[in-house]
Recover the amino acids of this structure.
């Protein structure tokens, strides 16, 4: 610290000019290199011997236009499945995570169940869960339960993702320092209130980026429901057309829509992670 | 405990507490009268913090009793939330809730535990914030405040429950030296108001000024107890003398 008292910042014009020039040069370099790399890749693909055939069966614009309406119909079911599964998964996942952290002896059976649930469900590939639930439960002919394979396929997604989300949330709950709970209990809040108002809000904030990651995965895994052929969601719609005409353009169209669905969520996840980082480093200085 | 008159506000009866094989408290007995300020002194690890945590029932004790309002609150199965409503504690590391603003930190327990309405809880919080010079910080988040301000907010948060007794666990130990004063002023203010307090502290000068009695903890028991001028200036026990000598030597360095 010098003893100067003047608060006005001092700038050297030549230094500023040098910084601006560096910045211009960096922009030029990144633009040129991107164009060159993409150009070479395109050239490689387009000049390959099989390109005309591939273009015909994967990028057929006319066929794409034909299948578009039905793919869009499938998109609707995909979004409905995803949007209804997500809140249920969050609630079930949080319950599982909280139960696993309970120490009172009366909760021991619940805690064991929660651990077993995470172990078993995460051990089974989601596609097998969908097959088992989608075909198995309707076949039981149980009274009072929905008998639609589509519903049970959706249910299988909820079962599968709840286990993953529970583990993410548990990590979040454990990352909240015990002194926070002690402070809450010391104020007279009971165990439930401490969780509800102090521990869970902090835990959820901390694991938001990995949670969003799981939801991006869920959005795509709704495609697995196609395997039981129940509802016509997007992948199933594309499948029908593709196998009908031996042209795979519908898959490419569906893929584009999946990307349109997940990219905003990915950017949002990045933005949340960045904000978190900036917040936790608040006052930590530059860089 | 039958007689209600002249009953101490808080009575510790041969309190024992061990962590595994490490016996931290070995029969601590202490009566704290109403409006009294008892300072707990002693070297690091002597059990000051453990004692306070036991008093707030954050740690179960192994033997003995803690009498408060005619009941042994340490007995297994006692409604700990009921006791904590009347006993406030402030920690060395503030432990404010980082996801809640200052005012929301303070109103949480009065609303959820005492069942106060939002307006009433906020009025109570605002009064306290004003009293301790924090009125302009109500909307801020804890991370934006200095250590001294955070600790004052933590004190206000405990006071908002209108406790009968306040426990302070080395509340200035995590602060920069220049911020210690503002927090100690709060304690002076509370003493003026007649609040019963137990404070674990390393600040001997402050203990001398504010305490009605000083308890020197050593080897898991109260080694010496008396008015500050006696315990701090003319200790009867050799180990108290040794401790005070070590403290003054450390100061000089």
């Amino acid at each position: 610290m010098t003893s100067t008292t003047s608060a006005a910042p001092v700038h050297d014009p030549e230094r500023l000019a040098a910084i601006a020039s560096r910045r211009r040069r960096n922009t030029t370099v990144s633009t040129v290199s991107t164009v060159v790399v993409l150009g070479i890749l395109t050239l490689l693909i387009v000049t390959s011997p099989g390109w005309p055939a591939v273009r015909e069966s994967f990028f057929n614009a006319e066929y794409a236009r034909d299948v578009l309406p039905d793919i869009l119909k499938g998109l609707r079911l995909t979004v409905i499945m995803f949007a209804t599964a997500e809140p249920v998964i969050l609630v079930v996942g949080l319950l599982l995570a909280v139960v696993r952290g309970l120490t009172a002896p009366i909760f021991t059976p619940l805690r064991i169940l929660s651990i077993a649930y995470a172990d078993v469900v995460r051990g089974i590939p989601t596609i097998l869960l969908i097959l088992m639930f989608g075909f198995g439960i309707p076949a039981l002919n149980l009274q009072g339960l929905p008998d639609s394979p589509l519903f049970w396929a959706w249910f299988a997604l909820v079962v599968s993702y709840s286990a993953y989300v529970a583990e993410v949330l548990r990590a979040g709950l454990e990352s909240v320092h015990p002194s926070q709970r002690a402070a809450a209990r010391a104020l007279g809040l009971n165990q439930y209130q401490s969780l509800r108002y102090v521990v869970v809000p902090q835990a959820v904030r901390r694991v938001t980026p990995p949670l969003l990651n799981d939801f991006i995965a869920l959005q795509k895994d709704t495609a697995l429901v196609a395997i039981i052929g129940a509802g016509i969601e997007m992948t199933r719609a594309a499948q029908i057309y593709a196998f009908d005409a031996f042209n795979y353009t519908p898959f490419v169209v569906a893929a584009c829509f999946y990307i349109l669905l997940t990219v905003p969520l990915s950017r949002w996840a990045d933005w949340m992670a960045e904000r978190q980082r900036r917040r936790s480093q608040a006052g930590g200085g530059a860089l | 405990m039958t007689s209600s008159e002249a009953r101490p506000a808080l009575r510790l009866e041969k309190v024992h507490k061990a962590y595994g094989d490490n016996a931290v408290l070995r029969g601590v007995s202490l009566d704290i009268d109403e409006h009294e300020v008892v300072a707990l002194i002693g070297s690091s690890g002597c059990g000051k913090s453990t004692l306070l945590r036991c008093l707030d029932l954050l740690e179960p004790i192994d033997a003995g009793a803690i009498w408060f309002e005619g009941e042994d609150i340490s007995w297994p199965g006692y409604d700990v939330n009921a006791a904590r409503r009347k006993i406030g504690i402030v920690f060395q590391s503030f432990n404010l809730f980082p996801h809640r603003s200052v005012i929301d930190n303070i109103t949480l327990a009065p609303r959820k535990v005492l069942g106060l309405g939002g307006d009433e809880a906020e009025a109570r919080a605002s009064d306290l914030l004003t009293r301790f010079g924090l009125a302009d910080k109500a909307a801020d988040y804890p991370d934006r405040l200095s250590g001294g301000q955070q600790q004052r907010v933590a004190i206000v948060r405990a006071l908002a429950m209108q406790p009968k007794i306040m426990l302070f666990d080395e509340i200035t130990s995590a602060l920069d030296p220049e911020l210690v004063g503002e927090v100690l002023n709060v304690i002076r203010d509370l003493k003026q108001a007649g609040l019963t307090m137990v404070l674990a502290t390393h600040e001997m000068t402050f203990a001398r000024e504010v305490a009605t009695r000083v308890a020197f903890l050593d080897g898991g028991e109260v080694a010496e107890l008396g008015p500050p001028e006696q315990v701090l200036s003319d200790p009867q026990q050799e180990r108290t003398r040794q401790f005070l000598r070590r403290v003054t030597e450390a100061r000089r360095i």
Notes: Chain B has a mean pLDDT of 89. The longest helix of chain B spans residues 177-192. Chain B touches chain A at residues 56, 58, 80-81, 84-85, 88-89, 91, 93, 95-99, 108-109, 112-113, 143, 157-158, 161 (CB under 8 Å).
